[in-house]
C-alpha cells in the first residue's frame, strides 16, 4: 500500500503512458510560451519606452524567479503526477475550492491566450500570401485553416503531436538565433557598445519602467507550466515533467534575452527607442532586411507563422488535458474523461476544446470583426495574467503542503524555495496589476482594464460557486477532487451508540486485515435496520483511499 505522499500506481486512466521524454515536454512548454510572438508584439513597445538593456535583464530576473518556483513545482509533481497540472496540487495544498478556482483560471487563461494567437495568425500570413500569390485572404480564413490542423493533431497519438510541435519549435528557435546572430555580427556603427548590456548609473534607473518590464517578462513566460499536464504520459511520471519545466524556462530565457539584446545591438543603444517606436512589430524584420537577403526575411516571417501554429497546438493540448482531468473526476461531464482506446489521446476533451475555439472563430467572423495586433495583445495579456495568479496559488499550495506533510525533501525544497517563489511571484503579480493599463496598451481607467480585472474576479467566483454546488449536490464527487479519479471509500456514520468490537473482523477499519470478512450479522426482527448516512461533506480526506478494500 502506498503512502499519502507517494501513492501507488493508479489504475490505467486511458492516457498513453511512457510515450514522452524530457525533451518533448520541454519543447511543448516553450511552444506554449510562444517566444517569437513576444519578440514581435511585446519587445518593441518596451524598447520604444526607453528600456534599453533593462529589457533583456528583466527576462533574466524573471527566469531566476521561475527556476525557484520550479523546485517546489517539481516536488509536488513527484508526489502526485496528473493530467490536471496545477489542479491536483492546489487541492492538496489549499483545498478543493482553491483547486476549482485554479481550474477555472487555467481554462479561462489558456483559452484567452489561444484566441489571441488565432487573432495574430491572419496578420502573420498576410505578407506571405501577398508576396507569393498576390492575394489578400481574410484573417478568419487563415485562422480556420490553422484550426483544422489543430483539431486533427489533437486526437492523434501524443508522441506524434509532440514531435510536430518540437520540430516547429526547433525551426523557429533556429531562425530566431540566426537573425540574432546577424544583428550581433553587424552592429550599429560597426561596434558593440557597452551601453547595450551595461546599465550606466544604476541610481537613475526608471523604477516604474523596471516594474513594467518585470511584469511584461513574467507574462512572456506563461505556458512553461503546462509541462506538468503531461506527467501521466511520460516515461518517468515522477521526475520528467518537473525537469522539463525548468529546461523550458532556461530555453525561453536564452531566446528572449538573446534576441532582445541583439535588437539593441543592431539599432544602437541610443537609436533603438526611435526605431522601435517607428517600426513597431516590424522591428525584427526591418533590421534583418538591412543585413540579410530578402529570402532570409521571408524565412523569418515563415518562422513567425510556424511559431504561432506551434503555440496554438501546445495550448490546445494543455486545455484538453485540463478538461480530461476534470471530466475523469466528474467535476465536469464525465464524457470529457474518456480517452481513445487506440491512440490514448483525450479525444473527447480535445474535440470539445476544438468546438469551443471553432464556435468563437465563427461568431467573430459572422460579426465582421477584424483581428489586429492590439486585440491579440489584450487577449494574451489577460490570459497570461490569469496564469500568473495560478502560479502564485500553486507556489503557496506547495509551501503549505510540503511542510504540513513532510517527505524526503530537504529544507530548501520544502520551505525556502517555495517561500521565496511565493513572495516574488506575489511581487510580480502586484507589479502586473499596477501596470495593467500599460501592459494592455490602453489609458488608465480604460474599459479593458476593468474587463481584465473583472475576468479574474469572475474566475474566482465561478470556482467557489462550482465548489459549493458540488459540495451540496455531489458530495462524493467533491471528496474526489484532486485524486485523479481514484476510488473512494466513504465511512458511513450511524446514530446508534458504538459497541465494543470483539474481533468482528470489520473490513472497513484500518486495523483488521482484509482477509478477515465473516458474514454480517442479521438484525433483530423487531429492530429495523438503519440506513447509513453520508458523512459531513468535506470530511473525506485522501487517506480514506483503502486499496485493500477496493481490490
From TrEMBL:
Signal peptide span: none
Keyword match GTP-binding: no
Compositional bias segments (type: Pro residues): 515-526
Record-level GO BP terms: transmembrane transport
Region of interest (Disordered), residue spans: 494-551
Transmembrane segment boundaries: 25-48, 54-77, 98-117, 137-156, 163-185, 205-224, 244-264, 302-324, 345-366, 378-400, 412-433, 445-469
GO CC terms: membrane
Keywords: Membrane, Transmembrane, Transmembrane helix
Gene3D superfamilies xrefs: Amino acid/polyamine transporter I
Membrane topology, as annotated: Multi-pass membrane protein
PANTHER family: AMINO ACID PERMEASE, AMINO ACID TRANSPORTER-RELATED
Name of the protein this chain belongs to: Amino acid/polyamine/organocation transporter, APC superfamily
